[in-house]
Give the backbone structure.
Amino acid sequence: MEAIVDRIIPPDAETPGGKDARCAVFIDRQLKGPYGSASGLYRLGPFMKGTKEQGPQSPLTPAELYRKGLAALDQYCKAKEAGKTFEQLSADQQDDTLKRIESGEIKFDSVDAQGFFSALLKDVPEGFFSDPIHGGNRDMVGWKMIGFPGIRYDYRDWIGRHNERYPYPPVSIAGRADWTPHKS
Amino acid sequence: MSRKLPARDVVIIGLGWTGSILAYELADAGLDVIAIERGPWRNTATDYPPGYAADELRYRIRHELFLRPEQTTFTFRNKMNQTALPIRSWGAFMPPNGVGGGGVHWNAETWRFLPSDFVARTHLTQRYGAGFLPEDMTIQDWGVTYDDLEPHYDRFEYLCGTSGQAGNVKGKIVDGGNPFEGPRSRDYPNPAQQQPFGATLFAKAARELGYKPFPQPSGNMSRPYQNPLGVRLGPCTYCGFCEWFGCGNYSKASPQTTILPALLRKSNFSARDNSEVTRINLDASRKHATGVTFVDSDGTEWEQPADLVILAAYTIFNVQLLLLSNIGKPYDPKANSGVIGRNFTHQTISDVTSFFDPAKFIFNPFIASGAIGTCIDEFNGDNFDHGPHGFVGGGYMGQVQTNGRPIETAPVPPGTPLWGAQWKKAVKENYQSALKPGTGVHGSMYSYRDVYVDLDPTYKDRFDRPLARMTIDFHDNEIKQNKFLTDKFAEIFQAMGAKQVVKQYRKAPYDITKYQTTHLCGGAIMGTDPSTSALNRYLQSWDVPNLFVMGASAFPQNAGYNPTGTVAALAYWAAEAIRDKYLKNPGQLINA
């Protein structure tokens, strides 16, 4: 997972990538929770394939989709790349593999490869941009990258200040690290 | 076998905006009122306090405040010859759940419909001739006029503390307001909200193009406000977590912040939450409701007898409950007969995303509220000559800055990959300098013979009741309308100096996964003829006179505005009819 999230959001000189932002930790926690088990969604059958406009009709939960998708990805890479797992490929080879999954060129037998990739494209940025209380967006790196101040909640002094950069650093639901005493 | 509760004067199904309004008005008239709500009780202080209300993942992405589809959902198809499949996760609209209903999570865009909207068929036929309307378009007059509703719009706006700039006070056009609106009896209770940078640029460009821009009427408070019921709201802080969220600041008009505190003081009102009404019960004549049956959170079934039943759930659940209770003749699109389920509509929304030079423009998109922005109304309803264009209907359009929440709102120019280094760079470059209006083109959707609600033959809810099935697609009229409006909207952003303007037209087929608005309308419509409407002009059932049905399910077709102002005005209008007419002489109020 860490290899994948670092290709979806690669590190650059200023901002960490998906791995250091802990997007994989975020996804792990989400899959262990209600999202992973499709809790609250309509799960009664019959499950039938419909039109694109009718929305997802898969009986798989997100946790099942990830389990099957990750296993199939490694199986595919091992077969194609002399026994190497996805993680062991070079960054370029990883990008190339993901691009061919995205385009539908690579298909998995056990699971819808494009569906798995769509879930990644949704979940990885969520890990990068959601509040750090959910495990990702470490030190609010995603928010700092774009200048989103998080949960500041009161901009009455700023509504009338037009075309001016908001100067204050972001705040999370858990506050800020520099407001919290270090444990000795 | 259900257990029977003591009889009450009134039972209300659903405690959202309309349920709260009817509960207050009828309890105020001295009636003994009980409301039964499917979802949980919700309080500002405990359900979405400022300390954790601003959680995009929890509320926006995981839908914390909305109905769980496992509790119930609908099935959907575009055409009558397709098999409808269940909506397993919400997409195109967000059915609310719990006390306050959609009033908890709405943007608070608080509009009135145009006078001509209420007489749509008569007005359009007179102006353009009957042949101008598509043959399968089934639009109708409402049976109620703008003038009938004006005092009730006014009541709702003063209940909510709506912030806005009047454009027409008693027939006198006021500069800076919407010159197309129907005459209002007085100003808004609060001045318009302060406008962010993008909205002021939009206003300037719109004026230069010859339009008359005005601030969107907003249920976000521009200053502290005490309403006529003595309930107080605080000023909006532009936190940017408004729509899809509850307001932790008591700054957005909702049943919680305007009416419930006053209602709960009345000893002749009570409510049950987490209790789902499964049917409206009728006596042997089938012409009189005896009350309702509901199931509580333990699965115990109860019967609540009452003299008067108010159905005040979300649009499509109103229709479903009427069908499941065998009230009114179900609509049959083949025979074009029956009324329950007919004239079902939604909205025709599109977006324009504009990219400006990052070195010159900083929009601070996170400084936002649900309804803050500047709009024009030149292309709404019949405010312009449709003759040359070959379609009817329209919508308002505006630069409404609802949020800069980064999961939802991180626009990148077309052609950017969806992931990887280029995507990351484009997100960073454009976050502060792109405009992606939370409300862009807000177009009407008119009604058609093959767009309707009935019961699904296959899929069931947790009580083994058939799900409601929606059959809906966009028709050429709406596609043309959207093309025309989106092009006009984009011209304004060009004039604002955007380096790239990206138009996202609304196209057929209707897609259940793409969010538009939560404004489902119709299916239990009001009108003057019992053969083409479920309700009379007072929202009273033609078939069961001691049943009144609130909500946008009464709209014969949808207009180019957000519906809540009109939904609430109709609720006050119906409440007045019950108090002043029905209670004096219970029975059918209209002889059709």
